[in-house]
Design brief:
Strand content: 15-25%
CATH architecture of the largest domain: Alpha-Beta Barrel
Number of helices: 11
Largest sheet: 9 strands, mixed
Structural class: alpha/beta
CATH superfamily of the largest domain: Alanine racemase
Number of domains: 2
Oligomer: single chain
Order of helices and strands: EHEHEHEHEHEHEHEHEHEEEEEHEHEE
CATH topology of the largest domain: TIM Barrel
């Protein structure tokens, strides 16, 4: 299969569509901004690659000072380890013999850390790593209010004891994700609720230290709480991911980072004066957090999507000047789920293609 990739230097308006456009200057600035903020707060950065799904971007984050990377699934971790990333944390539970075998295999090539919330999972990880002669780092996930996964403080103590005594495992610490507040629009509410969540997490760490077990890592934070959680005494690292590109939803939270990602589409039909049909649909842009914002033409808006088409409302003379073959650029409300639909980013600098960047982690949800 041929990908028909454009050559570097191709003007952005000549790119084949639909495609993801990344403003390289903006994305690189976002990486630097988060790392600088973390350095000033005295915490490490372990960015979540479930957003970018690409070793290209992970290398830039590591070069900026990140200590490792988070991956949502074993499949994503395999992509990163194969690309030479030296330290990978999976801040999710890895369940089942087949997945655990894949996880343990990665520990031969990189430092691997995985989250747990149950004694049975700890036993399974210990058996597999011992049989393979490997060592896995293990963190306990604490439920800090999101009510998805994780144990309470007492449960964390019991699991820490079990991990600390288990062959083939190394107890590294705790994690908690305050995902229920990262997109809260009101800063004071976001701050209050995030600090409540982190009090649960750091309290659990103190309980574990109280029984004589060292807690090296206390890992937390999403993009929306990086500057709140990062200032909590006892938190050691940030797991932010969306900051690298931002998306429409996070831009409603704050403007600490600039938007770098958009989806470019081509007008393929102009049967009505006030409507354009473009070649972008549900297979190339997500709408799990709402319809995307049309960036150009600025007055246009999305009416609806189908699989391969999108109807765009053109309310004025400027937008109605769009012709078949012209380009429409939109910012998705959720970047992660849009990125997972594409095989390449098209990295743009000064209006021209610098590089087609593979997204080998797309679809790696097993």
């Amino acid at each position: 299969m041929t990908d028909y990739l454009p050559l570097p230097g191709t003007p952005v308006e000549e790119l084949d569509t639909p495609c993801i456009i990344i403003d390289l200057d903006v994305a690189e600035s976002n990486i630097a901004k988060l790392q600088t903020a973390a350095n000033e707060m005295g915490v490490d950065v372990r960015p979540h690659s479930k957003t970018n799904k690409s070793p290209y971007w992970v290398r830039k984050q590591l070069d900026a000072g990140a200590i490792g990377v988070c991956c949502a699934k074993v499949g994503e971790a395999e992509v990163m380890v194969e690309a030479g990333v030296p330290e990978v944390m999976i801040p999710n539970q890895v369940i089942g013999k087949r997945k655990i075998a894949r996880l343990v295999a990665l520990a031969r090539s990189a430092k691997i850390i995985v989250a747990v919330e149950s004694a049975g999972n700890v036993d399974d990880l210990s058996s597999a790593s011992t049989a393979a002669g490997a060592e896995l780092g293990v963190i306990v996930e604490v439920n800090v209010g999101m009510d998805r996964c994780g144990v309470d403080g007492d449960g964390a103590v019991e699991l820490a004891k079990q991990i600390d005594a288990a062959p083939g495992l190394r107890f590294d610490g705790l994690m908690g994700y305050e995902g229920h507040v990262v997109a809260e629009r009101d800063y004071e509410i976001r701050k209050t609720e995030a600090e409540k969540a982190m009090a649960i997490l750091t309290g659990a760490a103190d309980q574990i230290r109280g029984v004589g077990i060292d807690v090296k890592l206390v890992s937390a934070a999403g993009t929306g709480t990086y500057n709140i959680t990062g200032r909590v005494d006892g938190v050691t690292e940030l797991q932010c991911g969306s900051y690298i590109f931002m998306d429409g939803d996070y831009l409603e939270v704050f403007n600490d980072f600039e938007p770098a990602l958009s989806v470019l589409a081509t007008v393929i039909s102009r049967q009505k004066q006030e409507v354009a049909i473009v070649d972008m649909g549900l297979k190339s842009i997500s709408m799990d957090r709402g319809l995307a914002e049309v960036i150009s033409p600025a007055s246009a808006s999305i009416i609806k999507h189908s699989e391969e088409h999108t109807a765009v409302n053109l309310p004025d003379d400027a937008s109605q000047a769009l012709k078949v073959g012209d380009k429409v650029r939109s910012r998705p409300t959720h970047g992660d789920t849009t990125i997972n639909l594409h095989e390449y980013y098209f990295g743009i600098r000064n209006g021209k293609l610098e590089q087609a960047i593979p997204i080998p982690g797309r679809g790696k949800f097993r």
